[in-house]
Design a protein that fits this description.
The chain has 335 residues and is an alpha/beta fold. 39% of the residues lie in helices and 13% in strands. It is built from ten helices and ten strands. The chain has an eight-stranded parallel β-sheet with strand order 3-2-1-10-7-6-5-4. Strand 1, helix 2 and strand 2 form a beta-alpha-beta unit. The protein is globular and about 55 Å long.
């Protein structure tokens, strides 16, 4: 179904409740390698397969699959064979902290004042699309970046659309969706911002959405479950973790405020078939333990979604924090 045929709140009536959860295809869970940075990639993949994960969110970074390595094609080929042997699907993520600049976290961005620097970030995304095509990935994840000091928002939006144009052309040719993630504190911070971008770009079919469930809890006016339903036509990648309202801190499941069964029920009802990837980038020091405990938590919540107890009427919509400004420093762009 083409995303161009939908608007954020128009014309959809997704099935809800126990009947929808029972008839929906089971969700497919993965774990992000940015939360396993202390493991060799081969060890991380073997562990995830042994634990029963369906796939992996593979962050292109120097310690795993370095997108700037001279032998990238050969390395990618080896990883593709390993994923196939282990039965793991993959989404390619591009949130490595220092892969382009050893002194600037997540620098340069698509919004940098220097055109050559913006081109370096765009080139990284083009490389990621090509890697994703070679791996048979479901999508390539990316984000806008923080508006640089001294740059007005109109200029920032213009830079973003221009920088993404060649990336989308490559993605379209490769048949790989580019899934932009709204990040608290970024230019593109909310679902409304995603819709602004897709309209500015002419609503290309290749442009999709990475929905981070924690970010919905942190920043969006709707509940996470309602965010899933609103975002359904554009979903190409999903990240998941616990989080608190107004605080951008990725937390292990149970340490935040999210009620997960309704979220997973909403996600299953959309028919989403990509990976739902655990996103705990600041927990690499205990990555194996978090990976071991996260999948049973999610499967239990999925079962609870399929057999929900009687619930009272939904609570009113959440009061949104100021746009793009949670109370904690932006973690997703600073992880």
């Amino acid at each position: 179904m083409s995303p161009a045929s939908h608007e954020p709140d128009g014309g959809r009536n997704p099935t809800t409740g126990a009947a929808a959860a029972a008839s929906a295809t089971p969700l497919r869970f993965g774990y992000g390698t940015n939360g396993l940075a202390d493991l060799r990639l081969d060890d991380a993949l073997r562990m995830l397969a042994d634990l029963g994960y369906d796939g992996v969110g593979l962050t292109l970074d120097h310690m795993h699959l370095d997108p700037l390595a001279h032998d990238l094609a050969a390395r990618t080929h080896r990883v593709a064979k390993r994923l196939d042997a282990l039965g793991l699907d993959v989404t390619v993520e591009t949130g490595a902290r220092y892969v382009l600049d050893p002194r600037r976290k997540h620098g340069p961005s698509l919004l940098d004042p220097d055109g050559d620097d913006r081109a370096r970030r765009a080139d990284l995304l083009v490389r990621a699309v090509r890697v994703a095509a070679d791996l048979g990935a479901h999508a390539v994840h990316c984000f806008s970046g923080v508006v640089p000091d001294g740059t007005d928002t109109d200029t920032a939006w213009k830079r973003l659309t221009e920088a993404l144009t060649p990336v989308l052309e490559t993605a379209s040719a490769a048949g790989i969706p580019l899934a932009v993630e709204p990040e608290p504190g970024h230019l593109l911070a909310t679902l409304a911002d995603f819709h602004r971008l897709r309209r500015a770009l002419g609503d290309p079919e290749t442009l999709g959405l990475t929905l981070d469930i924690g970010h919905c809890q942190c920043l969006e006016p709707l509940s996470p479950a309602e965010c899933v339903r609103d975002a359904a036509p554009w979903l190409r990648h999903v990240q998941i973790e616990d989080m608190r309202r107004g605080v951008h801190e990725h937390l292990p499941f149970g340490d935040g405020e999210i009620d997960f069964p309704p979220v997973l029920a909403a996600l299953a009802a959309t028919g989403y078939q990509g990976l739902t990837v655990v996103e705990l980038p600041r927990h690499s020091h205990e990555g194996p333990r978090q990976a071991e405990r996260s999948l049973p938590f999610l499967r239990h919540a999925e079962q609870a979604a399929a057999h929900p107890p009687h619930r009272p009427e939904p609570a009113p919509e959440q009061s949104a924090p100021p746009h793009g400004a949670p109370s904690a420093p932006p973690e997703g762009s600073s992880r």
